[in-house]
Write a sequence for this structure.
């Protein structure tokens, strides 16, 4: 398959069987046509609902925050106070050479227009939003909050209106040398929403193009590549419709991150299943007259491995349901739906289309009935030979290399700040950076404290007396709750501000009956970091157990599953280590998203085991046919190595598409998974697992039937 293929095929004309009738004239058509008809019905039902998924995709902070955290509860309760949710905005005026009188007048006029347009509190009494000048005279900061507006109104209307109609007055730019920007949490939410809206179409198109190019290179056919691509597109539409149904039926949280990962997973995993099936089908066409019989044999041969592979991925993803993070928790069922749809389409619709289109679909490399493939020594033959000559050296050297790469994880950057979540800096982030440089002595971003109104006085005194708090402002009251805005002396999301938030939470346990909670953007980031750490301790053991159980059931062994699991964990550690060496020094990422370790672990362990399943299942199959176990390992590598290489390249390339999106989370997720898949494909599977199989021989299959019946073999058989 492709440049790494182990077999070079020659174009040939199908050889008719005895009697002179071409096999295609006798193929049973009823079954494939029935399957296609069923999928046409599925597609007709799915298309209207698949298009509605974006309408129910949610990207509010509470959709990503941990479900039981104080910051999540504060966010929900604040939205129920009089006036609804509050969106804090910062109007920033800056001139490098110092603000002029005209600049200050412009700032006052714009603040007045904003106050008038949105009826800000105090405006009727002639009080404008509070404007604070920087000590160096270069920056003016005007902070205000919009209430009584839903999140969508703030994002889609208010922020854009202020920027386009007030700051720039429709078309006029600010005076030369003056920078006027709108920042704050509300503006950052608007910028995030705009970026999220562009992700879906860009990702779908980019992934389809990458898969198409790789399939063309792999199959070297002008037509064949279209069939798997068409089928994976059908699977993607079906999955989007099913996720929309889950959202409507169970109020499942579908975020842009979840649906994006699902799209990549469908294209990557679905194409992998197609590569394995088509490769086996092509081999069977040489020994079966009719494509229907060849496909039946191919499904019997690779079906168990593909089923176990998809089951491993789905089971690993469903373990995410144990996570407390809303976005991570929802990724489990969303991703599992994608894998199941990919499996269903590739094991039913793809075989039906291949059978109906016949062997001529492989033109110009048509696998003729009765022909023999031309074997040649290829990359994987050479790899297997080198592993066979020095298995101990290969195994020890590979393990040391992976261990050395794992050390790079100690060079990981610190936790990612909210303002660093984009690879392309939007206006809200630029405004935040200007504020931090101009006002280094205090935070411009409030910490929200919510408490029962009956204990509001005690809570206010406690907040004012907390170390690290420089100012407290009492806000709205309603529904038995009162809101306070506390300003820390340290910068937003700094270690000092985090310490202040922890101190506040500790102090606020004291007032009896207060039920005080601490929230706001910085508290949300703190909760994200702490909850992700807890989720890792909870989910990772579940994933390992689920993977081991599936491998033991498939391979009928304890040793082989343990080795495969250890191997994929090592691949994950090495991929993270390479990320630590590249993220900040090479790619300029200012931090690591706290969810990256857990999500990459789940995907790399579940997806990495796929290739181990393909390889070890074929090894077991060859051994059961009577091939000595030492020879079986090399036969499996030779026969499946090209397919695994092609599948690994396709999967890595599809996840690399995530790295093109303007979000650091997506870029880090895509790069770590892509690197891990390539390490697993070309180092772990090819060298380390094969070397372990050669060293352990039949003990690889202990204590199963193959261990008891397999012969040792006297040497390595080389063809």
């Amino acid at each position: 398959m492709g440049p790494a293929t182990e077999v070079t095929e020659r174009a040939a004309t199908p050889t008719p069987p005895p009697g002179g009738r071409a096999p295609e004239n006798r193929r049973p058509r009823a079954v494939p046509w029935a399957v296609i008809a069923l999928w046409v019905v599925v597609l007709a039902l799915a298309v209207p609902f698949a298009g509605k998924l974006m309408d129910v995709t949610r990207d509010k902070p509470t959709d990503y925050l941990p479900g039981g955290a104080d910051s999540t509860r504060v966010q929900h309760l604040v939205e129920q106070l009089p006036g609804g949710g509050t969106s804090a905005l910062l109007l920033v005026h800056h001139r490098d050479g110092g603000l002029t009188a005209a600049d200050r007048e412009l700032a006052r006029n714009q603040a007045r227009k904003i106050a008038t347009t949105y009826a800000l509190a105090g405006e009727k009494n002639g009080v404008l939003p509070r404007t604070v000048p920087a000590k160096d005279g270069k920056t003016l900061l005007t902070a205000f909050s919009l209430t009584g507006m839903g999140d969508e109104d703030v994002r889609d209307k208010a922020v854009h209106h202020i920027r386009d109609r007030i700051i720039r007055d429709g078309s006029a730019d600010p005076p030369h040398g003056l920078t006027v920007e709108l920042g704050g949490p509300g503006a950052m939410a608007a910028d995030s929403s705009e970026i999220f809206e562009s992700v879906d179409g860009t990702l779908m198109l980019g992934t389809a193009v990458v898969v198409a190019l790789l399939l063309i290179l792999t199959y070297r056919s002008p037509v064949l590549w279209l069939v798997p691509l068409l089928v994976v597109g059908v699977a993607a539409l079906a999955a989007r419709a099913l996720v929309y149904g889950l959202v409507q039926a169970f109020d499942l949280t579908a975020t842009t991150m979840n649906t994006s990962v699902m799209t990549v997973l469908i294209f990557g995993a679905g194409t992998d299943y197609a590569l394995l099936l088509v490769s086996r089908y092509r081999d069977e066409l040489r020994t079966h007259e009719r494509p229907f019989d060849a496909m039946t044999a191919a499904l019997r041969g690779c079906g168990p491995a593909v089923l176990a592979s998809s089951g491993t991925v789905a089971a690993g993803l469903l373990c995410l349901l144990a996570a407390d993070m809303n976005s991570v928790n929802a990724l489990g069922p969303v991703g599992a739906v994608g894998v199941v749809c990919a499996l269903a389409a590739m094991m039913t619709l793809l075989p039906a289309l291949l059978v109906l289109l016949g062997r001529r679909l492989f033109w110009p490399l048509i696998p003729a009935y009765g022909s023999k493939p031309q074997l040649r020594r290829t990359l994987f033959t050479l790899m297997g030979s080198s592993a066979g000559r020095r298995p101990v050296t290969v195994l020890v050297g590979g393990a040391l290399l992976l261990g050395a790469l794992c050390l790079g994880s100690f060079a990981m950057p610190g936790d990612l700040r909210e303002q660093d979540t984009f690879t392309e800096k939007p206006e809200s982030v630029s405004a935040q950076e200007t504020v931090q440089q101009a006002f280094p002595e205090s935070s411009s971003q409030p910490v929200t404290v919510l408490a029962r109104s009956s204990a509001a006085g005690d809570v206010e005194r406690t907040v004012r007396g907390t170390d690290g708090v420089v100012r407290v402002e009492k806000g709205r009251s309603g529904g038995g709750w009162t809101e306070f805005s506390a300003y820390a002396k340290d910068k937003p999301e700094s270690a000092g501000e985090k310490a202040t938030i922890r101190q506040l939470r500790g102090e606020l346990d004291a007032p009896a009956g207060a039920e005080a909670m601490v929230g706001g953007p910085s508290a949300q980031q703190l909760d994200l970091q702490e909850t992700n750490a807890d989720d890792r301790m909870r989910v990772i053991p579940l994933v390992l157990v689920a993977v081991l159980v599936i491998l033991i059931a498939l391979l009928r062994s304890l040793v082989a599953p343990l080795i495969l699991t250890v191997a994929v964990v090592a691949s994950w550690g090495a991929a993270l280590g390479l990320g630590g060496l590249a993220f900040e020094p090479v790619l300029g990422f200012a931090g690591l998203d706290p969810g990256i370790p857990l999500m990459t672990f789940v995907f790399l362990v579940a997806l990495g085991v796929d290739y181990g399943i393909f390889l070890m299942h074929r090894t077991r199959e060859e051994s059961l046919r009577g091939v000595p176990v030492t020879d079986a390992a090399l036969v499996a590598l030779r026969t499946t190595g090209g397919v695994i290489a092609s599948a690994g390249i396709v999967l890595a390339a599809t996840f690399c598409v995530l790295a093109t999106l303007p979000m650091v989370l997506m870029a880090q997720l895509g790069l770590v998974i892509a690197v891990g898949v390539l390490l697993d494909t070309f180092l772990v599977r090819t060298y380390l697992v094969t070397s372990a199989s050669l060293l352990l021989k039949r003990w690889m299959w202990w204590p199963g039937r193959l261990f008891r019946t397999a012969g040792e073999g006297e040497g390595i058989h080389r063809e």
Observations:
- The two ends are 19 Å apart (CA to CA).
- Confidence is low (pLDDT under 50) at residues 1-27, 122-126, 711-719.
